[in-house]
Amino acid sequence: MTTLTADIGGTNSRFACFQREGNNFLFKSSTTIKTKDFDSFEELLNALNKNGGQFDVQQHSKFVLAIPGPVTPADVLSFPNIKWEISKSSLKKLYPDTEISFINDFTAQAYGCLTEAVANALPLIKTEQTRDDIAIVGAGTGLGHGTLKKTAQGDYLHLPSESGQIPFPFTAEEFEQRYRAFIVQQTGITHPVGDNVVSGSGLSLLHHFITGKEISPSEVAAEIDAASETTQWFAKFYARDCRNYVLTTLAGGGKLFISGGVAIKNPFLVDNDAFRNEFLQGSDTVQDVLAHISVSLIRDERIGLFGAACYASQQSTC
Prior knowledge:
The protein is α/β, with parallel strands linked by helices. The protein contains twelve helices and 13 strands.
């Protein structure tokens, strides 16, 4: 039995084939295509099929689709950073012989933390571990969050999140208030959220505010380093979002993984003292919680693909 997994992002859509062996799914191959090159999901799948039959949905018994937004009971799913939508019923009619599942992309990434995709993760903050609960935060085209809570039975309960849509907690510091006003001016968004601050577009906005240069995220990353002012502030904002999320989800301790193309491609944005110092800020109560939460940077961008396969495996053994 084979499973096709998909990790749909605002910039890239990744697909992978897995072979079922017992209760495990073994990775076979993967491919990546540009999401914005297509006017519909069906058009994207047609282009994918041209890459070879191994990525043809109808050639697989399962298709697990990780999407960048909430999975609601509605038939049509839409996404904040993608121009097209997905109709669950239409997709199932196109591939009646394939079992199709829809999960949030950071639910998939959270499950990916149980797989080989985190084998080479870079430790950022090491602590004494007290629990096996997992949280994941990732900045890419948008800002994603997800959590796995270990149950008394030894399996995991996944908790999808849309925390990237929560208003970002700027402090009263003059720099931060001026930057917040700049975001409002540039975007027209009156209440900037995490997506606007801790993301690729957020990196560009921050660099524009600091230097006056209006350039793409990749161009920003190419001209900054760990000591740059842009890096120092972006690291603080990233750490603040991470800290607030784990205080909400890992109060008993656990592991935080950072993913997303922004940091995976540019580790210096989080592997620095500005990030660590901001993450560890807080009251005595906060310090007691953070003392039992480790932080690591994932370095494998296939994390969501492995996680979708792990999710399929967990569902199969329930």
